[in-house]
Structures are given as structure tokens and as C-alpha cells.
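Human: I would love a firmer grasp of how sequence relates to backbone shape in proteins. Could you go through the record with me and say what the backbone is doing? Here is the record:
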Amino acid sequence: MSEKFYLTTAIAYASRKPHFGNTYEVIMSDAVARYQRACGKDVFFCTGTDEHGQKIENLANEQGITPKAYVDGVAGEIRGIWDLMNSSYDYFIRTTDDYHESAVQKIFRKFYEQGDIYKSEYEGWYCTPCESFFTNTQAVEGKCPDCGRELSQAKEEAYFFKMSKYADRLMKHIDENPDFIQPELRKKEMVNNFLKAGLQDLCVSRTSFTWGIPVEFDKRHVVYVWLDALTNYITALGYDPDKTFEEQSEHFRRYWPADVHIIGKDILRFHTIYWPIFLMALDLPLPKKVFGHPWFNFGMDKMSKSKGNVIYADKLAEHFGVDGVRYYALSEMPFASDGSITYEAVIKRYNMDLVNNLGNLVKRTLDMEKKYFGKIVPTPAGEEGTDAELKAACAKAYANLRACMDEYHVADALEGIFEMLSRANKYIDETTPWTLAKDEANRARLGTVLYNLMEAIRQGAVMLAPFIPATSQEILDELNTDLRDFASLESFGGMVAGAEVGDSKVLFARVDEEKKLAEFEAERQAMIAAAEAEAKANEVPERPEGCALIGIEDFMGVELRTAKILACEKVPKAKKLLKLQVDLGYEQRQVVSGIAKWYAPEDLIGKKIILVANLKPATLCGIESNGMILASGEETVRVVFLADDTPLGERVR
């Protein structure tokens, strides 16, 4: 039986559509999974969505729907993007799945019964977006140390997990397994900032909201989202908390422990401290590695809708194709430091690497093959210095691929492949096939050159399969070769002489940078406008200053009566004024009102209104006014109209 490899992403929080930085994780994980499969391993690749918590409950309430309905929509959108990005996951778990919720309840009870969990009261800082608690020393000026947002004070009854009980054991494990946390910088952060500083007991239940997995034996509590979410890595394999490891299903015992959890650096604490301790309490083996990848920023800034710099992978794919998005994500993210994405950088990478280097190499090689050999693969004859250099470049790229991918240096692996493709393009310039084709005496040499080029392309396509799988398959289909595994890269010469290749195609069309940037700027402005509109819609207006408070006797001193407008006309030489004749039922009056800017006289006749009936008479532009019409607003005035069946002369109170 082949060696197993269990790989997971962090499950995406089902609060909002994931942006490009969030999507990077599943693209990277997919590249690792495809690479491990190509190495002959039995891979189980798991991803999914984290669907409980206060933030989701709040968002659902804002939309007037149930939390389950809310997460159903977002989880579907997340899975759709994962599928669009051609991620080859084997299992997609949702934390609202019945079997997961049942297992979490059993795990919670197990921890409680063995004395790892106790009930107390929590009081301190809480970050709703991160679903995280912080001490006074961790909170920086009342802000979350992870996301920088404002923290709120929380006080509630909760269950706590005794972290300190397992702290020494975890420290020993990290010391004895130096590769457990990668990159090395991340390990130092966890050890120095948390373990050596002393672990505090962890809040594992909440009572201030209800959208979560209920604690079976105390229904006022729901399981805190991190205990709920982290256990997905074992419930996805069918873990049964009532059984020992030896009693678990064959599927679980086959794949656990995980070979790697690929996560964002911001949630490393949960995966390298809390999660291992939970596993120790369950008497389960710990994952072999936790890899905390960096973030993607827009240039030097974090992505923000208000700045119009949020990039979504599905939208980017509309411009550059799925493999264009995958390639940029994988080639631009460094191993340990944050990556950067700008539209200019994407266009440059796309045109230089995919259009010029890869696409142009494949097309002109197959075009020459068709022109000079009628699409029949020639037999190579002999070897010259340039041939040996091309073969050495292929071997170097493959060795580099294996070394880099085994250590999760994904961008470096891709860089090595494209260096080989550049060498193949240089090989064309060195050998000048078009010159060789002019002399029949050079036909054998021409055949060797084109054979070597097609074989280099084949090897490059096989190496690119984990990264840009659709393009890799298309190239190999054009070459009409069945040799598509890593074993075929151990030697140079996989193309079969005498076989027929297909016609060339344009793999990547060149992008007009100026035109494309204009399109992106239009999208950015639309995003800013939408963000401003959303902010305005959610804005709570400030309370106006208003007037001094009055007593009921003062209010009752104002006589408000219902009336009907009988006639209305503009006041000559006064743009703002209208002269109205109104009927109060018991008498008729003349009123002058400054509403001409907002109402035409003919639109007011017959309308019923409210009149301040005991206002002292005033003269406006030489016309006497006996009362005032009730209206609201300053920049835009709105008259208060009454229903047609309102009796005239009624007192308004």
C-alpha cells in the first residue's frame, strides 16, 4: 500500500465571501496535494467551512434570516470559489454537519468528565471578528492584537479548559520535533509569546449568544467556536470520541495524524497550542507539521473595501483565467514574509511568464514541428553542447521541484521550472531551427532540436501539473503523450519518435496593460461607491441638538388642527412662497408658506394637512398669513399630509 498523506486547510469562516488572500490558502494546499499525489502518495485533502459564532449570528440578524440560512449561502459561495480554482479536495466539511456537531458534544463531555474542563466566569476583552478573548496585557490600547479592531468588555459564565495541565508536555513535544511548527520564525513567536509566558486556561463555551453547538449537559452554553472548529480535522475522518485510537475506523487510522495543517499565520496560536493540547487530552497523536503561511496584501496595504483594493479570486479569473490566478498566487507568495498583489504586478507576471515564456515556447515549437515534420515526432540523433545544457536544465528544475515542495517553498519550486522554460527559449535562439530547415543536410540536426524542445516542454508541463493543472493537461494533450507522471522525469527522452502531435493553441493571450488597468480602476471606483453606500445605510445618525425640553403645558399651548387646501398660487416676486386658502371646517384662512421650491400649486390643492392654528398673524411680502403648515426637513422640505378621510378641524395631540 502506498504511503498516505493527510493535508488540511483551515476551514474558512462562513461570514463573508473570501478575498484573494483567503483563497490563496486553498490554492497552495491544492498544489501541495497534487504534488504529493504525483509523488505516488495516497492523499486525503480536506477543507471546509467554520459556521458557528457570535459574528455569524449578528450578521444573520442584520439580514433578518436564521444563522443556518445565512451560512448555507456563504458556505455555498466559498465552495463554489474553491471549485472554480480547480482545487482537488477529497472532502469538504461543514461544522453544521450533524455528525460533526454530535462528535463535538461528545468531545466536550469527555473533557468535562476527565477533569479537563470546569465552569467559572469570564471577564475581560473580546474580539467578535476573531472570536477571541484577550487579557489586559494582550490587548493593545483596547484593540485586538490579531486584527487591530476595537475590543469589547465581556462578562459571562463559561467553561474553561485547563491548558496549564498540558503545557509542559507540549513544550517537550515542540523541543523534540523541531519541524512541528514552520516556518521557524512562527515557532519562536508561539514559544516565546505564549508557552514561556505561561498558558492561561481557555474559555471553551459561551452563554451570550445561541448560534453554536449546545453543551449537552448544560444547554445554556454553546461550545466556543475554536474547540468546535479545530476538531473538524478528526471528525472529517469519522472520529468517534467513545472509542480508543485502536478502535477507530480503518479510514481514521489510515490517515490520522495529519501530515500537515496549512493555515494562515494569524491563527497559528490556535493550531500549535490549543489544538495539540486538545489532542493530548483525547490521547490522539499530534499532527506532524503545522505550516503558517504569510498573508497577501494589496501593495503595502491590507485589503479594504473602503479603499477599493479588495481583490476576489473569481473576479480576477474573469480577466486572467483560473490558471493565471493560480500562477500569480503561487509564484508571488514568499515562504515566510507577506506577499503583495497589485493589478500591475499581475499583468506583468501574466504577460512575461505565461504569455511570453511558457505560451510562446509551446506555440512556436509545435508550429515549427508541424511546418518541418508534419506533426510527426522526429528521431533525435547525436548531442551537442546546447543539447546537454537543456537536458541539465530539465534535471535541475525537477530536483529543485522535489526539494522545494517537500519543504513548502512553493514559489521557489515554480521559479526553478520557469528558469528551465527560459533556457528552452534560449535554446531556440541558439539553434535557430528556421536556419537549419533551409539546408536538407541539417535535417537530422533540426529533428534533434525539435525533439529536445518537445521533450523539455513535456517535462515542464508535468512539473507544472500541481500548480496550473488545466494548462498542464492542455499542453500534454497537444503533445499527445501519455507520459505524465513524475517517474517519467527521471530521464530525458519520454517523447516517442514517430508519434503524431496535435496542433498548437494560444494558451495565454497577451493583456493590454493600459486597457486592463482602466477596467480595474472602474471596478475599484464601483467598489468604493458600494462600500460608502453600505456604510451610509448602516450608519446610526447622530442625535440632533434640538431645543430645550418643555413641559406638557407648553406643548398643549400649541394648537394643531387638521385642514384642507382649497386653493394655492405662487406669490409674485417671491420664488420661495406659496399663498394657500385652507379650510379648518369651522372657518377658512389664508396662509403663506415657503414651500414653493418643493411643491407645485396644483399638486397641493385638495390635500389635507396639519396647521398651527393659534400662531399670531404675520405679513410676508405684503400678504397676511394666519398660521403655519406642519412640515419636516431643512435641505428637503416634506409637508405632513393626512389621509383623505381625516375630519377637518380636529385637534392634533
